[in-house]
């Protein structure tokens, strides 16, 4: 290309790029029961919106011809002729559109979707990211993962089979995950002769069900994904349908700006310190907007400061909004690190250690309320335990069934106790800070996905103490504390000597050899828990968890004798170290 042509083409290319970047983005989840035609619908949508490359189309044509020939058991010579003809074919009826999304060999062999597949297309009005989610009951957890970030959902129903239990399950999960808009697509209308009565019967049943789940908008479409009816073009085979096309509905949905309008939340991912004159907090703005000069607080410490500068890869900015990846420089040298969160002073998040949540269980092993798990929420990870399962959702009737556990793909309401507070918002108010995952502490497998509902509803709850710290202090005459002794070879003998001294002074005391859980339990019960541990990780865990649990904390100096330690521990509280 000569210089003159380049000068003409460059502005046009830049204009197209600018137009594309300015189009509103819609995240779409396509859900439904197994074999309802989700992959075929998405493949047809991609094909008719020019969202595919020529080599993809050619490869699917060859695979479609091969699959058709195998079904009819053609001789090898005729099969070869069929593949050759398919390579130059232009008739879209020869395409198996499901092959554009079912990329795994197991998916193609079985004709089902197993894992979530993401596909991308762009129209003149907007960009769309489509999540093709599996419909089989076994892969409900994959479906929940694919739908967790969606702005809208499309739920398919086979016109021959009607509304199935898995259809109801997926609709409920979609509502649980906060998807506001739902399209009910009655697919395979060609197999029932495009009967209006069949469409209206199925559509009415599912729409009535969906409305009980709280969707903001529900729309019905009679569709044949294999023939292309009412997907991007109105079909002459359904003249009675006046609801437009599926693509038209997707383009008409309001742009989802909820994160921008939500309170400012900035989970810290990393602290950048390239030299002594620069200290920035790197991360992604989870919601809201922050500007240079805004007063913010660092949580959980509560320290207040102001935003001095906002740095990005492209240079400094005056403000940053939701999903922007930035580095915030603060006017004061406050202590902040990964897991902390920045928020505006007048709109703080909740800091919850005891909370209620909805939970989708992913684990092959059922939820065990006697085990400890890890909860990861934004950039913060905290040890946690499920106090109890409040109920399990029976998806056939949407009833709440009493249950002591949750099995694979179950959904229920749980009560959770975290060792460190989660800095969060209710999920319905903020999907970014209200969501968390549950990790098996032993295997590090992700075993659940949760949505914060809010603080635990009752402080007088089964399994929790009904005795307050003030009552224990009044009865025992002391405030419980963890006392960490120096890690020396004679630590055990010195701990027992200190225990004797404190007991002689009338204190309630017990020695614990390096058991974090027992030490914290004793301290919460109002005792002095004397701990000695050589492992640095145990000492660090004790220090952090005693702080999070709100118990007293002492770390003794090796230079002093047990008698001196005892005098310090029984001195007035302001002398504590």
In round numbers, the mean pLDDT is 80
* CATH architectural grouping of the largest domain: 3-Layer(aba) Sandwich
Can you tell me the overall shape? elongated
The CATH superfamily title of the largest domain:
P-loop containing nucleotide triphosphate hydrolases
Unreliable segments of 5+ consecutive residues: 78-92, 104-114, 459-463
Do you know the CATH topology of the largest domain? Rossmann fold
Largest sheet: 8 strands, antiparallel
Share of helix among residues?
25-40%
Structural class: alpha+beta
Give the strand tally: 27
* Name of the top-level CATH class of the largest domain: Alpha Beta
How many domain modules? 4
How widely separated are the two ends? Answer: 76 Å
The helix tally amounts to 15
Rg over CA atoms: 30 Å
Give the amount of beta strand, in percent. Answer: 25-35%
């Amino acid at each position: 290309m000569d210089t003159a042509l380049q000068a003409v083409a460059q502005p046009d290319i830049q204009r197209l790029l600018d137009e594309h970047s300015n189009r509103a983005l819609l995240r779409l989840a396509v859900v439904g029961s197994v074999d309802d035609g989700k992959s075929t619908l998405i493949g047809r949508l991609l094909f008719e919106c020019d969202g595919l490359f020529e080599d993809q189309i050619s490869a699917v044509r060859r695979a479609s011809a091969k699959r058709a020939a195998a079904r009819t058991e053609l001789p090898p010579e005729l099969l070869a002729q069929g593949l050759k003809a398919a390579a130059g074919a232009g008739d879209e009826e020869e395409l198996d559109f499901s092959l554009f999304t079912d990329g795994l060999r197991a998916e193609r062999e079985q004709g089902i979707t197993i894992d979530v597949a993401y596909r991308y297309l762009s129209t003149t009005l907007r960009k769309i990211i489509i999540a093709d989610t599996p419909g089989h009951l076994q892969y409900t957890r994959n479906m929940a993962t694919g739908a967790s970030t969606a702005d809208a959902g499309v739920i398919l129903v086979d016109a021959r089979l009607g509304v199935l239990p898995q259809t109801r399950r997926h609709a409920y999960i979609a509502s649980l995950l906060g998807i506001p808009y739902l399209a009910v697509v009655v697919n395979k209308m060609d197999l029932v002769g495009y009967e209006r009565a069949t469409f209206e019967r199925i559509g009415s049943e599912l729409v009535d069900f969906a409305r009980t789940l709280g969707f903001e908008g529900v729309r019905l479409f009679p569709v044949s994904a294999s023939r292309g009816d009412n997907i991007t073009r109105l079909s002459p085979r359904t003249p009675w349908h006046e609801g437009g096309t599926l693509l038209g509905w997707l383009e008409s949905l309001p742009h989802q700006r909820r994160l921008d309008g939500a309170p400012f939340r900035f989970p810290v991912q990393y602290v950048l310190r390239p030299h002594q004159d620069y200290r920035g907090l790197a991360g992604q703005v989870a919601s809201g907007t922050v500007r240079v000069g805004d007063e913010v607080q660092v949580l959980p410490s509560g320290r207040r400061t102001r935003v001095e500068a906002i740095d990005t890869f492209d240079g400094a900015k005056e403000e940053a909004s939701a999903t922007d990846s930035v580095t915030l420089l603060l006017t004061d040298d406050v202590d902040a690190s990964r897991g902390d969160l920045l928020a505006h002073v007048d709109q703080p998040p909740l800091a919850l250690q005891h909370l209620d949540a909805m939970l989708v269980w992913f684990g092959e092993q059922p939820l065990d309320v006697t085990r400890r798990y890890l909860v990861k929420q934004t950039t913060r990870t905290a040890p946690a335990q499920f106090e109890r399962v409040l109920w399990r959702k029976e998806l056939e009737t949407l009833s709440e069934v009493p249950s002591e556990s949750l099995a694979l793909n179950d959904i229920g309401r749980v009560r959770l106790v975290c060792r460190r507070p989660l800095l969060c918002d209710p999920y319905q108010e903020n999907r970014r800070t209200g969501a968390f995952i549950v990790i098996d502490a032993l295997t590090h497998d992700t075993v659940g996905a949760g949505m914060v509902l809010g603080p635990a509803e009752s402080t007088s709850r089964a399994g929790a103490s009904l005795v307050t710290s003030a009552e224990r202090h009044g009865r025992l005459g002391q405030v419980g504390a963890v006392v960490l002794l120096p890690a020396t070879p004679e630590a055990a003998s010195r701990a027992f000597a200190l225990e004797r001294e404190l007991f002689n002074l009338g204190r309630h005391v017990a020695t614990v050899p390096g058991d974090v859980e027992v030490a914290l339990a004793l301290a919460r019960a109002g005792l002095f828990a004397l701990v000695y541990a050589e492992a640095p990780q145990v000492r660090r865990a004790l220090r952090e968890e005693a702080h999070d649990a709100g118990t007293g904390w002492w770390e003794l100096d090796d230079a002093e004798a047990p008698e001196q330690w005892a005098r310090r521990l029984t001195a007035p509280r302001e002398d504590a170290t």
